[in-house]
Design brief:
Layout (H helix, E strand, L loop, with lengths): L11 H11 L11 E2 L5 H10 L4 H15 L9 E4 L3 H15 L9 E5 L26 H8 L3 E6 L32 H8 L5 E6 L5 H7 L2 E4 L19 E6 L2 H11 L33 E5 L10 H16 L3 E5 L13 H14 L10 H7 L6 H11 L5 H24 L4 E5 L18 H6 L3 E8 L11 E7 L5 H15 L15 E2 L2
Parallel strand pairs: 3-4, 3-5, 8-9, 8-10
Antiparallel strand pairs: 1-13, 2-4, 5-7, 6-7, 6-11, 10-12, 11-12
Length: 527
C-alpha cells in the first residue's frame, strides 16, 4: 500500500542526531532525558530551554511515528491531510525562539485539528469528497489563537462526514483504534482521539455536540473536555448546533488541557455565545492543577448511568474500582440519582439549528469557494449516502412551523441545567461522576451504544473525560480497552474539573499506552 501523505523521509536516527547537534546540546546528567511517549507541554519546553530538543527535531519524531503507524503497520488512518511543510514551520519557530524567545508554552509544539476547523494552509474537508480542496477565506478563531501562540498545525484528522454522516467518512475512510484495531476510536472526533492515542501529536482539537470529544477520549484513553458553551469560540468551524456544541481540546494528559484552554478561551465577536464567558476566564487554568484536589472533594456517582447486564460488567468493574480509589484518596463518594433525568435525554436543539448554521458557514467561505450555501453543495451530490437523510430532516425542522417545538426544547435544556446545578448545590457536590460509555467502545460496523454524553450536552454543562482504567487484555486488545470517566461540573467551572481530573491522573490512575503503536527507536532523546 502506498502512503497517502508525502512525509519527509530522511534516515531517522541520522536526521534527529543532526538536528540535536545543530541545537548545541550540552552534555549533562540523565535527568536531561526526553521521552516522547510521556511528553507534556512542560517537559517539551524544558527540553527546548535546555537545548536538548528543537521544534524541528520534535516534529521529525512525530512524523516518524506517522510514517510507521499511519500509512503502514496497523494503518491507523487518523489523518485526512498532513501539513505540506511542517519542518519548515518548525525551523522558523526555532529561529524566532532563539531571536526573541517563545510566544507561549505552545511555541513550536505540534497540534492536530479535527477537519472541521477552517485552516488556510490545509484544506477543510469535513470528511466530504465535495470539499476535498476547500480553502476557506478565513481561519477558525481557535486556529488563529493557536498560531498566535506559536503552535504548529501538523495535520487535519478524520471525522464523521460534516459531523453528521457516517463514522467512516467518504474522504477519510475508516479510522481504527490503536488499542484494538477491531474497534472504532469513538465517534465524530475519532481521528483526533486516535492520533493522540497513537502519539502522532501531543495536542488536538475536536468538537462535541452530544459526546463527540468525550466518546473518542473514552475510547482512546486520552483526556477530552466538553467545555461550557461560549468558553471557546466555534467561529470558522463546520457547525452542528448553537446551543450545545463545544469546540474543545483533547490531550494526552490533564496539564496540557490547561495550557490549551489558556491559549484559546477568549471572547470572540464572531461568536456571540462567547459573551457569556466574559469575566469567567481565569488568568491561567494551570493554577488549578492540584495533585491533592481529591482530598475533601465531594463526588456524586450517578448510579443510573451504569448498566446492569452482563455486557456492562467490564465497564462497571473498571469504573467501580476507580471510584473506590478516589475515595481512598480522600474524596467523599455519594451514590446519587438525578430526579427525572430521562425526561431530558432527547431535548437537543441541533436538529432545528443545523441547517441555518451550515448555510451561514458556507456563506462565509469566500468568493473563491465552489459552494456558497448548503443547498448548492447538496445539489452537487458529492457526499456519502448517510448524510442526506439526516440533512433532509434538519432542513425540514428549520421551518417556521417547528419554532414552538424548538423553543420548547430550548426551555427544557435550561430547565435541565437548573435541575442539575440545584441538585449539586443541594448535596454540596464538586462534580458528578459516571462512565462515559456503559459498554466497551463498539467493534467496527456496530453502533456505539450506551453512551452517557447527553447529561452534559442537554444540561449545557462542562464535563471532562479521563481514563478510569482499562478492560482485561485479549488477543485483539493486548493492553485492554480504555474505559472513560466523565466528571461534570457547574457552568464555567472548568478549573475545578481540571483539578479533580489532575489529582486522579497523578494519584489514582495507573497510566498505560497501546503497545500496538509502541515507541520507535530514537524516541528517548538524551545528550
Amino acid at each position: 500500500m502506498s502512503p497517502r501523505f508525502n512525509l519527509p523521509r530522511p534516515p531517522f536516527m541520522l536526521a534527529v542526531a543532526a538536528l540535536l547537534l545543530t541545537a548545541g546540546v550540552p552534555v549533562l546528567g540523565q535527568e536531561r532525558v526526553f521521552t516522547l511517549e510521556t511528553a507534556t507541554v512542560e517537559s517539551i519546553n524544558a527540553a527546548f530551554d535546555s537545548g536538548l530538543l528543537t521544534s524541528e527535531a520534535l516534529v521529525q519524531l512525530y512524523l516518524a511515528r506517522i510514517e510507521a503507524y499511519e500509512n503502514h503497520g496497523p494503518n491507523i488512518n487518523a489523518f485526512i491531510n498532513i501539513h505540506p511543510d511542517p519542518l519548515g514551520v518548525a525551523r522558523a519557530l526555532d529561529a524566532e525562539r532563539r531571536a526573541t524567545g517563545p510566544r507561549s508554552p505552545l511555541h513550536g509544539i505540534p497540534v492536530v485539528l479535527k477537519d472541521n476547523f477552517n485552516t488556510s494552509d490545509l484544506p477543510t474537508t469535513g470528511g466530504s469528497i465535495g470539499l476535498k480542496d476547500l480553502r476557506p477565506a478565513r481561519e477558525a478563531f481557535v486556529v488563529e489563537r493557536l498560531r498566535a501562540a506559536g503552535a504548529i498545525v501538523l495535520g487535519k484528522t478524520n471525522l464523521t462526514e460534516l459531523v453528521a454522516g457516517a463514522l467512516d467518512s467518504p474522504l477519510g475512510g475508516r479510522t481504527s483504534n490503536p488499542w484494538d484495531l477491531t474497534r472504532t476510536p469513538g465517534q465524530s472526533s475519532a481521528g483526533s482521539g486516535a492520533a493522540l492515542a497513537a502519539n502522532f501529536a501531543p495536542l488536538a482539537f475536536g468538537t462535541d455536540n452530544g459526546q463527540s470529544i468525550r466518546s473518542p477520549a473514552s475510547a482512546s484513553g486520552i483526556v477530552g473536555i466538553k467545555n461550557t458553551v461560549g468558553l471557546i469560540s466555534c467561529a470558522g468551524v463546520i457547525p452542528s448546533s448553537l446551543s450545545h456544541n463545544s469546540c474543545g481540546p483533547m490531550t494526552r494528559n490533564v496539564a496540557d488541557m490547561a495550557h490549551l484552554l489558556d491559549a484559546v478561551a477568549a471572547f470572540d465577536p464572531r461568536d456571540f455565545m462567547t459573551r457569556f464567558a466574559l469575566g469567567q476566564i481565569p488568568d491561567t487554568y494551570t493554577s488549578f492543577l492540584d495533585a491533592d484536589a481529591l482530598q475533601g472533594a465531594r463526588l456524586g456517582v450517578v448510579t443510573e448511568l451504569q448498566g446492569d447486564g452482563p455486557e456492562h460488567a467490564e465497564v462497571n468493574r473498571v469504573f467501580d474500582e476507580a471510584v473506590a480509589r478516589m475515595a481512598s484518596l480522600g474524596a467523599t463518594v455519594i451514590p446519587v440519582r438525578i430526579p427525572n433525568m430521562d425526561e431530558y435525554r432527547d431535548v437537543g436543539t441541533d436538529i432545528y439549528e443545523a441547517w441555518d448554521l451550515f448555510d451561514a458557514w458556507f456563506g462565509e467561505l469566500g468568493p473563491e469557494a465552489e459552494f456558497h450555501d448548503f443547498q448548492s453543495f447538496l445539489d452537487h451530490g458529492t457526499y456519502g449516502p448517510e448524510l442526506l437523510p439526516r440533512t433532509h430532516t434538519r432542513r425540514e425542522h428549520a421551518g417556521a412551523e417547528y419554532l414552538p417545538e424548538y423553543e420548547r426544547n430550548l426551555l427544557k435544556m435550561h430547565e435541565f441545567r437548573r435541575l442539575v446545578v440545584d441538585f449539586m448545590d443541594e448535596h454540596d457536590l464538586d462534580a458528578l461522576a459516571y462512565p462515559m460509555q456503559q459498554i466497551l467502545v463498539a467493534p467496527h460496523g456496530e453502533p456505539n451504544a450506551g453512551r452517557n454524553g447527553f447529561l452534559a450536552s442537554m444540561a449545557m454543562l462542562p464535563a471532562i473525560d479521563v481514563p478510569a482504567g482499562y478492560s482485561q487484555p485479549n488477543a485483539s486488545a493486548p493492553d485492554g480497552v480504555p474505559v472513560g470517566m466523565d466528571l461534570l461540573g457547574r457552568p464555567f467551572d472548568e478549573g475545578r474539573l481540571l483539578a479533580l481530573a489532575f489529582a486522579w491522573e497523578q494519584r489514582g490512575l495507573e497510566r498505560r499506552w497501546p503497545s500496538i503503536t509502541r515507541p520507535l527507536s530514537g524516541e528517548e532523546v538524551s545528550p
